[in-house]
Design goal:
The complex is a heterodimer. By secondary structure, chain A is of the alpha+beta class. Chain A folds into two domains: 108 residues, Sandwich (Immunoglobulin-like); 238 residues, MetI-like (MetI-like fold, Orthogonal Bundle), CATH 1.10.3720. Helices cover 52% and strands 17% of the residues of chain A. In chain A, the strands form three sheets. A four-stranded antiparallel beta sheet of chain A has the order 1-2-7-4, with no helix packed on it. A four-stranded antiparallel beta sheet of chain A has the order 5-6-3-8, with no helix packed on it. Chain A has a two-stranded antiparallel ribbon with strand order 9-10. Chain A starts with a helix and ends in a 5-residue tail after the last helix. The model of chain A has no long low-confidence stretch (mean pLDDT 84). Chain B folds into two domains: 168 residues, no CATH class; 216 residues, MetI-like fold, CATH 1.10.3720.10. The radius of gyration of chain B is 29 Å and the shape is flat. The two termini of chain B are 51 Å apart. The chains are: A alpha+beta, B mainly alpha. At the A-B interface, helix 1, helix 3, helix 4, helix 5 and helix 6 of A face helix 1, helix 5, helix 9, helix 10 and helix 11 of B.
């Protein structure tokens, strides 16, 4: 009896296992092909000297032309095939061109004879090797014979068939570490590293603090609170491209309102290029400080755009907190600041540290914002912008991939930290 | 100690609020009039504290009549202290200037009423001082928060309604001239839809976003159900991997994706986007929905299994109907991600006929195309998200807080 039950349970378990895997399979496949495979491909590319131009596969271009009059029986006409290797870098190997010569022609001469053969009406040219940028001609001298029919026998009617093989840098097994050497040895590596971490740390902490402040403000109930709560989420839900350009226009040195206003109010003498100036001098008590202006602006944008998220999480957590504790504290004579410091803060510290780690990862990964605001110029080039810069601006895909690998290693470290830490906290 | 007295706080808040509102309404005045107004703060730094002292001393006899009289007195004081011409504006604008000063006084008094309410001028307890500061910071914080959030959006809308000439002539004039006819007012929008193919971009964005939502939900609902309910080996590792994948940014994947999609000829096509987007959203959706499904009671499932329903039937007839709000919020969230996506669209699309809105706006970012077109494009891209957001705020907020650490 128990055996039967056990057996039934086992088959049920097996069935469930199978069904579960079937339900998850499409997800696994999609993620494998669009996330995991590219991720591995990125490692692959990062060890290769490969540029943007290498992505265009080399091709043999063949053009068929007719010289002379085909309709004249007594005169020889020419069918020419001109071929050219389109690649400026790669040789083509085992090149074979095939074409059918219509029945209505008799072939008198075939050049180059050492490569080409005519078997019945099929022309086969085994060109073997066509080096990069080189070109050549195949010439057939023909005249029409008795079988000639005007409509049917146009030699151009059948297209020449081309087969070849070429070395492909993407799939070859040539590797070197040039890209990584370039990424790490360049003097800009330290600069990029510094900028990335400034941006990430100040952006994350700023957004978290403003979010905490906003949550404290919205915690108190007042008329129109839900409207304000919705308003504060605007920066986050709007398309990044829209708000980034709004900021650029707001701070534009020529027609931007902030500059015009500051000049008008005599705060500054001449307009400041907020997103284009690396440093600005700030004089405090006679000392001149170099203030990284563009980087600070980008960080300000990051805070502006992402404080709503921290705000939302912290507010949600605060509203789940029992009101009675505060009431009890009030009766005990705790001042508002004490209430915040001894009750709210310990209660929020868990969610805030989780938020900090997660947002830290996402800020570190952020590309769009900086790219749209400054294009990575004026001392705002982070690792992510460097990927674009190397791969698509300088056209060195390999170096870009190497930077992406560096990002991924950082990311992995942060994520493992996050997973380890979040186990302790309920999230 | 002097700073323990209510009188000190009335002086302090009078000064700070006075300066705050003076700056605020000077800026408003510059924006409305479009002419330079000079900002002088020394007068208000004396009048503000006087108002503060007046408020705290006269708390017992506050009535509407009293309020109104005081506001008018403050207004007159400001005028007199500036020898009749605050802001040093031109004569023709005197009415607006008067309104601005009146508003400054009104808001100054209102703020005092908020932060000094029930505060005695005498010695204060620690508790009272803290409550005062909290009220004070609360008020200023709320106003600044709202302003900072909204100003870029305001600039976006106003700029899109301007013409090139008025933008260069006076960047400060941010008023809308309602005397012009609608056609000149909305000139940039008309231009974008007639000459810049924005109707196509809108349609493309909708196609891509909606398809992404459908594909994502189609695959993530059964997947999430399996993760939440079925006994699968190594479930924990799988869930952990989902989170990890969800943290991988597209910038790390863009080079190989660019290379591979170029090779197979899918790069410059909407199909390419429709293939990539769901792969980035499915892990998020899976993660969010798994949470919702686990929260449903499993007893219903067991009862249904007893009644002979298969697991697929349970998903269709029980899990989906029960978690409809959750699915709506996940769907909205995914729509938002796809609609706002920039990097992949920017890298993949070259052909202007298949641009999505993000890519289309990027093509407007050149020195040859006037700013107001760029801002009109930004408004067009923002409006659909805003409509969804305002109508379905509740759903979207729950979606955001479930998976919204991404972005």
């Amino acid at each position: 009896m128990t055996n039967i039950v056990k057996k039934n349970q086992n088959t049920l378990l097996e069935k469930e296992k199978k069904l579960g895997l079937i339900l998850l399979l499409p997800t696994i496949l999609i993620v494998l092909s669009v996330v995991i495979f590219p991720l591995l491909a990125n490692f692959w590319i990062s060890f290769k000297p490969i540029s943007l131009g290498d992505l265009r596969p080399p091709k043999l271009i063949v053009k068929e032309r007719i010289k002379g009059k085909l309709s004249d029986k007594n005169q020889l006409a020419e069918i020419q095939y001109r071929y050219r290797n389109s690649s400026i870098k790669y040789d083509l190997e085992n090149v074979i061109i095939k074409d059918m010569i219509p029945n209505g022609f008799t072939v008198k001469d075939l050049q180059p004879a050492q490569f080409c053969k005519l078997k019945l009406k099929e022309l086969t040219c085994n060109l073997d090797n066509v080096s990069s940028r080189s070109s050549g001609k195949i010439i057939l001298k023909v005249h029409k014979n008795d079988q000639w029919q005007k409509e049917l026998d146009n030699p151009k009617k059948t297209k020449p068939l081309v087969t070849f093989s070429s070395k492909n840098i993407l799939t070859s097994f040539e590797f070197n570490t040039e890209n990584f050497k370039k990424v790490f040895s360049a003097s800009e590596f330290f600069e990029v590293f510094k900028v990335s971490f400034y941006y990430t740390i100040f952006g994350t902490a700023g957004a978290l603090l403003v979010g905490l402040l906003a949550a404290q403000i919205l915690q108190k109930s007042f008329r129109g609170r839900s409207i304000v709560r919705g308003l504060l989420l605007f920066p986050y839900v709007s398309p990044v491209i829209a708000v980034a350009f709004a900021w650029v226009i707001l701070f534009d040195p020529f027609s931007g309102i902030v500059n015009a206003m500051l000049v008008q109010m005599n705060v500054i003498d001449k307009p400041i290029n907020f997103f284009g100036q690396k440093y600005t001098d700030i004089i405090i008590f006679g000392y001149v400080f170099k203030f990284p202006l563009a980087l600070s602006m980008v960080i300000a944008f990051e805070i502006w755009r992402y404080f709503p998220l921290s705000f939302l999480f912290i507010l949600a957590r605060m509203q789940s907190f029992p009101e009675e504790v505060y009431d009890a504290a009030k009766i005990d004579g705790a001042s508002p600041l004490q209430q915040f410091y001894y009750i709210s803060l310990p209660f929020l510290i868990g969610i805030m540290s989780i938020l900090f780690l997660l947002r830290f990862i996402w800020t570190f990964n952020k590309f769009d914002d900086i790219f749209l605001l400054t294009g990575g110029n004026a001392g705002t080039r982070t690792f992510t912008v460097n990927v674009y810069e190397q791969a698509f601006a300088i056209s060195n895909l390999g170096a870009g991939a190497a930077v992406a690998v560096v990002i991924f290693i950082f990311l992995l470290t942060f994520s493992l930290l996050f997973i380890r830490y979040s186990k302790k906290e309920t999230f | 100690m002097f700073w323990k007295y209510g009188l000190f706080f009335s002086i302090l808040s009078g000064g700070v609020w006075g300066v705050f509102w003076q700056i605020f309404f000077t800026v408003v005045g510059i924006l409305i009039l479009g002419t330079p107004l000079s900002l002088e703060l020394s007068q208000i730094m004396i009048i503000g504290p006087i108002a503060g002292i007046l408020y705290i001393k006269s708390q017992k006899l506050l009535s509407i009549k009293f309020h109104l009289t005081v506001i008018i007195i403050i207004t007159l004081l400001i005028f007199v202290s500036h020898s009749g011409n605050p802001y040093q504006a031109e004569d023709e604008n005197q009415l607006i200037i008067f309104m601005l000063i009146l508003l400054t006084s009104f808001f100054l008094w209102l703020s005092l009423n908020h932060s000094l309410y029930n505060l005695s001028p005498g010695k204060l307890s620690k508790h009272d001082i803290e409550s005062f500061f909290i009220k004070f910071i609360w008020g200023i914080g709320l106003i600044i928060l709202i302003l900072i959030t909204l100003i870029p959006f305001y600039i976006m809308i106003i700029t899109s309604l301007k013409n090139q000439q008025s933008l260069i002539l006076n960047p400060l004039d941010l008023s809308i001239n309602l005397n012009t006819d609608l056609k000149t007012l909305f000139n940039s929008y008309i231009e974008l839809f007639t000459n810049f193919n924005f109707h196509l971009f809108l349609i493309n964005s909708f196609i891509v976003s909606c398809t992404t939502v459908i594909i994502t939900l189609f695959f993530s609902i059964p997947g999430a159900y399996a993760l939440a309910r079925l006994r699968i080996p190594n479930k924990k590792i799988f869930s952990g991997t989902v989170i990890l994948i969800y943290l991988i940014p597209s910038i790390v994947l863009i080079i190989p994706l660019y290379a591979i999609f170029s090779y197979i000829g899918l790069r410059n096509s909407l199909l390419g986007l429709i293939l990539v987007y769901p792969a980035t959203t499915i892990p998020v959706a899976l993660y969010m929905l798994r949470g919702y499904f686990s929260a449903l009671s499993s007893e219903i499932d067991d009862a249904a299994l007893m009644d002979g329903l298969s697991r697929i039937q349970i998903i269709l007839k029980i899990a989906i109907p029960l978690s409809k709000p959750a699915i709506v919020s996940v769907g909205l969230y995914v729509f938002m991600i796809a609609w706002n996506e920039f990097l992949i669209a920017f890298m993949f699309l070259d052909d202007p006929n298949i641009f999505t809105l993000s890519r289309g706006i990027m093509s407007l970012n050149s020195s040859e195309i006037p700013q107001q077109h760029l801002m009109a494009g930004a408004v067009i891209a923002t409006i659909p998200v805003m409509i969804i957001f305002l109508y379905l705020e509740k759903f979207l907020i729950s979606g955001l807080s479930a998976g919204g650490v991404k972005g």
